[in-house]
Amino acid sequence: MRACRCWPSALNDTVGKLWLTAAAATGNPLLLDLYLEIGSALRTVLRDRAQRDDFDRFLVAGHGSLLAAIRAGDPEAAVREASLNVETSGD
User: Of 20, 15, 16, whose CA–CA distance to 32 is shortest?
Assistant: First the structure.
């Protein structure tokens, strides 16, 4: 698949808010603190990766699947989608 030559800041902000909201929703203060500490660096890495020829478009599509699971109130699907997203993001 052709690489995305941009990672729009609006998308970056939306993804950041999604993960911040998901971390807060867990009720786990350690997870929330961790995300607050690394969130900015993580978004920078994702934006930089989007410039590479081997950028995995799942990083964009996977967030949609996660959001759909959260909206559906399906915690098992949300955990599955979040885990898959994290596992694939390092490829």
Answer: 20
Give dist(CA 67, CA 75) in Å, integer: 11
The answer as to whether 51 is a domain residue is: yes
- Sequence-distant contacts of 55-60: CB under 8 A, at least 24 apart: 55/3, 55/4, 56/88, 56/89, 56/91, 57/1, 57/4, 58/85, 58/88, 59/85, 59/88, 59/89, 60/4, 60/11
Q: Is residue 2 part of a domain?
A: no
Asked whether 47 and 12 are in contact (CB, 8 A), the reply is yes
Residue 43 tokens read as: 């978004």
Which residue would you say has higher pLDDT here, 5 or 35? 35
Q: Dump pLDDT digits (tens) for 16-26.
A: 787 888 888 88
Tens-digit pLDDT profile for residues 36-49: 898 888 778 877 87
Residue 43 lies in a domain: yes
